[in-house]
Amino acid sequence: MTRPIRIGTRQSELALWQARTIGDSLGVPYELVPVTTHGDRDLTSPLEVIGGQGVFVKEVQSAVLRGEADLAVHSAKDLPSAQVDGLSIVACPRRGDARDSLVGARLDDLPGGAVVATGSARRRALLLRKRPDLEIVHTRGNIRTRLERRQGAAAVMVAFAALQRLGLSDLADQVFEIGDFCPQVAQGAIAVEARTGDEHVLETAAEINDPATAAEVTAERAMLAELGTGCALPVGAHARSLDGLIEIYAMIASLDGRRLVEATERGRDATSVGSAVGKRLLAEGGAELLAEVQLPADGWADD
Length: 303
Known about the structure:
Blueprint (H helix, E strand, L loop, with lengths): L4 E6 L2 H14 L3 E6 L2 H4 L5 H4 L7 H8 L5 E5 L11 E5 L8 E4 L11 E4 L2 H10 L4 E4 L4 H6 L6 E5 H6 L6 E4 L14 E6 L3 H8 L4 H17 L7 E8 L2 E9 L6 E8 L2 H23 L11
Parallel strand pairs: 1-2, 1-3, 6-7, 6-8
Antiparallel strand pairs: 3-10, 4-10, 5-8, 5-9, 11-12, 12-13
Helix pairs in contact: 9-10
């Protein structure tokens, strides 16, 4: 290929940072192909109303399938668990920080009845599990928008990796450990997709793959696929690659945080381990919990 590799990406500040980081790591000339997604055009409607998980990636994927771009770079958490025909996840570079963070105050320092903003059903549930007195309000938009427009909230909860990548990590008043706030599936990871059969592009992108991160993301996505759900419900998972083994912790919560089903599995095959932990969650009460969840009219997802 004599022309630069074309990288399809959303146009948000964070997405462009991720795409440039991937491009710089390829070791070959590249150019960005910015794409406006449905999720970027509609910043007010609940994500599940306008398409749920996938609203930030479908148009970027389509650009690759149409041949307008060679690679698609995504926040891995935005990808639905079902792989799109004609595309392959060819690389997951080394994962960033998977933890959640609170901007504005520490959780224990918030007064009773304080307002916390998030667009995530998972974060909402886990916040209420620790502080049922809080009022959780829904917010959407890019990171800077959420930080600037707090809707009167005392604090905003966002992914710590997003703050780090935008040079805003010093704004975090508290970063929660994985055991306290289970992350969203694939949080902190970047996924690179290419057309199946585009050998030169596949080989070039495969050079930046981190096998440990790829295994972790595979396990977490397999768990989500087993549940048959996406980002709009209070579900989380975090896998670790340890000496050839994959260990994964996963959870399903009620929207009010009062009930929690959790499970851990370990094994050598990432897909099998993820699927197994998903089956355990469903068998141990998760199926009933998911069936009971009714999302509020203003909508929740996982941002």
